Amino acid sequence: MLALLAFHAAAFEGSQQREGVTLTSRDPGDALDATMRGRIIETFFSAYLRERADFHPGAPTQARIVIDPAYDGVAFVGEGDGAATITINPGWLARHPDDVDLVTHEAMHIVQGYPEYANERVPGWLVEGIADYARDRYGRDNAAAGWALPTAVKDGQRFDTGYRVTGAFLKWSEGQHPGLVKALDAALREGHYGPALWTQRTGMALPALWAAYVKTR
Ligand SMILES: [Zn+2]
User: Fold this and answer.
1) Which domains does the chain have, with CATH numbers?
2) Ligand 1 mean position to 215 CA, how many Å?
């Protein structure tokens, strides 16, 4: 009887559906404990359903999260098995257990679903700035991770510094011009983004808008 109780690390695979969105989670090496796995899944649904509803209701209804110890970054989004896939390094979560809102940033990349990345039509700084703007807006517990958009501008930073620096600029700009981020996101997805869009939406060219933002900091 005892011989049957052979415990060993088993691959985890599960699937959950909420509001028409199916998330498949795979953790082949069983790297996350059940609590962390639950937090990751909860954070995904909490963020993705709202990001999707607010920015792109046509965004994928199938998503995957894959835990990959061989990946040495933090997390990234790509395609795998025909579904938008968030790959996460479990080592990062082991060292930063409160950084679960990295999923909120990555989930926004699935919502974005832009046709290109890092060129004039889809600048990388803006893609990452929007994802961090979304992390701030839809995150469950950014404070626990010590994560926040900066309230000050440092020497050498620009509108196109990207990530949190651009995210804070977008948040301020959205406050001045409601609907701006949604318009930028839609233009990036539809392939007609250009610097002129900032002028159309705010009455100011991008460098002038940044200068106005810097004055308030
Ligand atoms: Zn990103």
Assistant:
1) 9-113 (1.10.390.10), 116-217 (no CATH)
2) 28
